[in-house]
Each structure stands twice: as C-alpha cells, then as structure tokens.
Amino acid sequence: MFIDEAEIGVKAGDGGNGMVAFRHEKYVPRGGPAGGDGGRGGSVIFCADGWLTTLIDYRYKRSCKAERGANGGPNCMTGADGADLMLRAPVGTQVYDADSGELLVDLTVEGGRVVVAKGGRGGRGNARFATPTRRAPRYAENGEPGEERRLKLELKLLADVGLIGFPNAGKSTLIARVSAARPKIADYPFTTLVPNLGVVRVDENRSFVVADIPGLIEGAHAGAGLGDRFLRHVERTRLLVHMIDVSGFTGRNPADDFDIVNRELRLYSPELADLPQVVAFNKVDIPDARAAAERLAPAFESRGFKTFLISAMTGEGVRSLIYCLGDELEKLDKVVPTPAEAHEILRITPEKLDRRRWEAKKVGDHEFVVEGKGLERAVAMTNMDNEEAVRRLQRKLDRLGVTEALKNLGVEDGDTIRIGAVEFDYVAEDALE
Ligand SMILES: Nc1nc2c(ncn2[C@@H]2O[C@H](COP(=O)(O)OP(=O)(O)OP(=O)(O)O)[C@@H](O)[C@H]2O)c(=O)[nH]1
Ligand SMILES: [Mg+2]
Question: How far is 361 from 353, CA to CA, in rounded Å?
Fold first, then answer.
C-alpha cells in the first residue's frame, strides 16, 4: 500500500529525577550530600531512508515515545540516558507541525537526520545544591519533561522528471522501458494507482530519476478520476514529459488532451504548470498515429515545445527523448540540497520558549491559573513530596512576582492555583502565623 500522508504524536523521554542521598562512610561522621543527577531523556529523531517508499508504518504507529532517563543514584551516580528513538521515513518526506502547520523539515537527502522532539535534561541530585552555607540540601530536582508535539508527515517523491498525461497515454510503458521500474501496464485508464519511480541511465556519467503518476482527466482538480492528489509527487521535479496518445483510439483530439492536462496542472499549482515541458507523441508504431503526430508537431514546436515521436512499446524514438532530457536537466539548477548540508543533525525547537514570560489569570471562583513555559517547567521539575524542594519553588514564585500577582487578582486562603499539570492550595501568609 502506498501511503503519502500520516499524522503522529511524538514524545521525547523525560529526564530522570535527581536523587537526595548522603554519604555513609566509616569514620566520616556526617557525610555530605551525594545524590546523583538523573540521566537525559531520549530524543525523537527522524532519518531519511532511501529504501522506504511509503509512510505506511505511520498508519499503524500513531504515537512514538523515546525512553526516559534513569533516576540518579547514591554516591553521586548519574542515571543512564534514555535511548533516542530513531524513526525512518522515505526520502522526500516533509515534516510539519500539525498544530501550527509550519514546515519543520524536508528530508530530501538519504541519511539526513533531524531531532523533532528533544529529550528532557536530567534533574540535578542534591549533591549539586550544596553550598558553603547550605551543606546538606535535602532536595533534588525532577527531570525536565521531554518535548511533545503532533506532526503531520507528507511524502513528496523526489524525481528529476515527471511523466504527465491522460490515463492510458503510455506513461507506465515508457518508465518500464527506460528504467528498472516495473509498474502495471494495461489497456484501461487508471491502471497506475500510485506513483512509481525509476532511475534512467543516459550514458556512463549521467542518470536521472523519473516519476510516473496516475493519469489526469478533466476536472482532476475537483476530484475527477483519481483527482490531482498525486501531483504533489511531480511538484519537485525540474522537467515534465507530457505524453500524448495519438493512436486515434481515444476518440478525443490529442491537442485538446494536452490543453486539458495543462489546465488541471495550473489549477493545482501555477508553479507546476510553469515547469518546462517536453512533448512526447506516443504510440507512433500505429501508422495513423504517426501521421497524426507529424501533423500536430509543428504547432507545438511553434509554441516553443520540444516534440518527440515515440513508441514506448517498440522503443522507437525513446533514446533521443532520453538524451534530450539529460541535456535539458544539465541546464536546469538542482534544487535539492547537497548531501553535506542534509547530513548534519538538525535540531528543531517547538517554539521559541520565552522562559521568563508568564501570566496569572483568574479562571473561576477561587480558581487561578499561572501560564508560562518556564514556570511550568520549574513546577514539573519540583518534587512535590519533598518539603524543601517545594519551599524552594515557593521562593522562586515570590521572587518572580507570581505571589504578588495572585494577591492583586484577589486570591484567598484555600483557593486553587494551577501551574502546568500541578494544582496547589493557596496558603495566605497570615494563616501561617
Ligand atoms: N501500440 C502502442 N500501445 C502502447 C504504447 N505505449 C503504451 N501502449 C499501450 O497503452 C495502454 C496503456 O499503457 P500504460 O503504460 O498503462 O498507460 P498509462 O499512461 O500508464 O495509463 P494510466 O496508468 O492508466 O494512467 C497499454 O495497453 C499499453 O500496452 C505504444 O507505444 N504503442
Ligand atoms: Mg500507468
């Protein structure tokens, strides 16, 4: 099955928690703090794999999680890092943020890798919080939560040349003749249901990739036939071969076929319609077809199109078409980045985290929410079972002015305050006395 769209959730591993521990050694009366740090959580990484041709794996695997980091141990032992999760996708896969619609990365080169969700860092153990004045801290940090996001994957095959034309024009017959691709060929429209790629050898030093896609008919942009949804697979080609069936068996005027397909192309994408086209009149092994092609060619030539009379079936004229394509491609710029650019691991930050920004809101009777990435992270990294850690968070909230802001909003003793996933009861200062 050919799948070229998928939506998945990815979650990087949380960092491991830091530990609270003290040294127990013979002859050392009161050991110092020795709780180790948590390990780093694993990241979720996408890798472009040339062996894959579809996104089918992601039809069934909807949620992908990397491993969390291990907790810190005694004797300042750092927890093990969580393993990264490497996800493979076909070359040509574009990864979008499903929520914002932003294109995150285009996996155009085999082996290209990108981190789409970064693992959280490990929480610091209590050994890290020791200072000359605070020799025995009894708190440690929890691990940082791993990044989490929804992704939309879209495969757009990468080829140099796209084959377009009406169903039954002979596109699959041509790709089968010039490459090792073996698509289904049959005497009825819409034989090809999914795109095929083939590598064409021009000569010893030159080769290019051709994409054969399902045929287009009038109204394809509105969903007629197989619609225009496969056109995305020729969007990134540099050159189109427009195949026209001149056998006369179609009952249509070949020149009209050409215009109809071009109209559909333009309705789908003006950029695609503006790609250079080479015209191939196919099936000239049929005598009437050859005559028709010879009649039509001058008009096309005078509109600036290079034309070829070919028989994809017998191979006549195919060589010169291939040479022409090789030459034309040499004149056109390569749009795909070089492997060197694509191989370094790219790191994508979900959003520019402005960690300092926060906002306190009253959301109901006796209910308040404080929002802000940095604060939410600080709360997630606080071990709520540890009194000292909670006191430390409290001081942080005071220092940042959160407490003050809540008071201004009219917070009262016993009210509920939510920060990220955690709920607190507000305790008024006078209630403490
Ligand atoms: N006589 C003759 N028949 C051909 C030639 N090329 C293709 N055909 C026949 O035309 C029919 C359609 O060929 P395909 O290659 O399947 O056409 P297609 O453009 O891929 O069609 P779709 O996949 O349906 O869009 C088949 O029966 C082929 O054998 C040719 O050069 N000469
Ligand atoms: Mg076909």
Answer: 20
